[in-house]
Amino acid sequence: MNTPIATPAVSRWVIFILAIGAGLSVASIYYAQPLLPLMGTNLHLSIEGMGLVPTLTQAGYALGILFLLPLGDRYDRRLLILVKSAALSLFLLMCSLTAGLHSLLLASLLIGMAATMAQDIVPAAAILAPQGQQGKTVGTVMTGLLLGILLSRTVSGVVGDAFGWRVMYQLAAASIAFIGVVMWAVLPRFAIPSTLSYPALMRSMAHLWLRYPALRRAALAQGFLSISFSAFWSTLAVMLFERYHLGSAVAGGFGIAGAAGALAAPLAGGLADKLGAGKVTQLGAALVTASFALMFLMPALGTHGQLILIALSAVGFDLGLQSSLVAHQNLVYSLEPQARGRLNALLFTVIFVGMALGSAIGSKVYALTGWSGVVALATVCGGIALLIRVFERAGITSTQAQNG
After folding, report:
1. DSSP structural state of residue 7
2. Coil vs helix vs strand at 31
3. CA-to-CA distance for 56 and 121, rounded, in angstroms?
4. Which among 286, 293, 281, 309 has a CA at the least distance from the CA of 220?
5. Can you tell me the distance from the alpha carbon of 283 to that of 240, in angstroms, rounded to the nearest whole number?
6. Which of 48, 55, 175, 249 has the greatest number of beta carbons closer than 10 A?
7. Which H or E run includes 309?
8. Cα–Cα distance for residue pair 87/66, rounded to 1 Å
9. Is 393 exposed, middle or buried (0-12, 13-18, 19+ CB in 10 A)?
10. How many CA atoms lie within 13 A of 239 on its CB side?
């Protein structure tokens, strides 16, 4: 099982394990969001201090994507996945034992960096897929990853409410350790696709960024949508606690509403085939913007109406965000298929820089202006992303001429 693979055919069991591994690893960067009030009470943190926890986690993920993901073109992916799983389990356990803000922030940064094992698992699944089934195989793993993102808040909210935030992180550490051992047992070794040195890989990424305006446009548009997304989720639990006296379990429950919208997003791939990926990115950005703007109606409603409106908005903007992401990935991957790994790293680096900024700015805006300020921030950033996609015609023309 540990010898280099001669053929990529593997069992559905291995693909299922990869899907679970992707979901559990990426969930690690979202567990904190419903737990922030519990962390703040336990460690005596300010609102700004609580906001730094998801900020550092998202920043760590962005750094890991930019500086660690290119290693997949240079080293055995199995080794990278196993090393990151061991590190992620250790960092999650370290987070559960922190006693102050600084150690918590350090653990959050390291968790984000190690959680990029999810982005190593997806291309590994593509390599292992039987001939002609790459799309289906990658789709299966991406479903696991998406469920990890969406249900992580629900799970952490319920566990945190019942047992405390430290227990949630200890359970997360155990789950990563378990799936790491399983992947060690079932994953074969992978061929090394490139002999480029690490500095050469990084230089090639800079060249790709400069070469393709379509890549920059896609990354920036999705980055602004990520600011909106992260600002909402990073402040929701605090707002629900302060305004409605609702606990972390309820905050996590809104993740289910988001899941209902985002799980429909894979349909965006088929829609992109009919309408074009560029059109789907516009529709996705418009839906995000409209969903956040809808929350401006909250003052006109009663308590139950406000909570229902937040849930409906979560369905809408999660659907718009994920649909836009699927379409942006299609656009970016078509630019240079042999460099998809590095193109993916560049796209997701900007996305998670946006996530980190959304957490930081959202927490600051909430502390200064309240929930209405967060809604305004999210709506404006969604509108900027929409403008980037609407005014893309000149960029598309220049890219076609360049590739023609």
Report:
1. S
2. coil
3. 23
4. 281
5. 30
6. 55
7. helix 303-333
8. 18
9. exposed
10. 25
Spatial contact of 39 and 104, defined as CB atoms under 8 Å apart: yes
Q: The pTM is what? A: 0.75
* Per-residue tokens: 35: 């737990």
Cβ contacts of 357 within 8 Å, gap of 6 or more: 227, 230
Q: φ, ψ for residue 189 (rounded to 5)?
A: -75, 155
Beta bridge partners of 322: none
Q: What is the 3-state composition of the chain as percent helix, strand, coil, each rounded to the nearest 5?
A: 85, 0, 15
In DSSP terms, 4 is beta-bridged to 189
CA distance 250 to 242: 13
pLDDT in tens, 309-363: 998 998 888 888 888 887 887 788 778 766 777 888 899 889 988 988 998 899 8
Q: Dihedral (C-alpha) 267, 268, 269, 271: value to the nearest 10 degrees? A: 100
* 136 contacts: CB under 8 Å, gap ≥ 6: 129
The backbone torsions φ and ψ at residue 4, rounded to the nearest 5 degrees and listed phi first, read: -60, 140
Dig out the tokens for 349 from the structure: 């680096």
Q: Give which of 286, 287, 292, 284 is closest to 310, Cα–Cα.
A: 292
What is the separation of C-alpha 367 from the centre of its chain, rounded to a whole number of angstroms? 25
Give 94-108 pLDDT, tens digit per residue: 999 998 899 999 999
Tokens read off for 193: 């696709």
Q: How far is CA 37 from CA 14, 91, 365, in A?
A: 38, 21, 17
What are the distances in angstroms from CA 314 to CA 229, 255, 394? 9, 8, 33
* Amino acid letter, residue 374: V
Residue-wise burial string across 176-212, b where 16 or more C-beta atoms lie within 10 A, e elsewhere: bbebbeebeeebbebeeeeeeeeeebeebbeebbebb
Helix, coil or strand: residue 188: coil
Residue in 116, 361, 122, 132 with CA at minimum distance from that of residue 231: 361
Residue (of 53, 256, 229, 56) closest to 153 by Cα position: 256
Tokens of 353: 């820089």
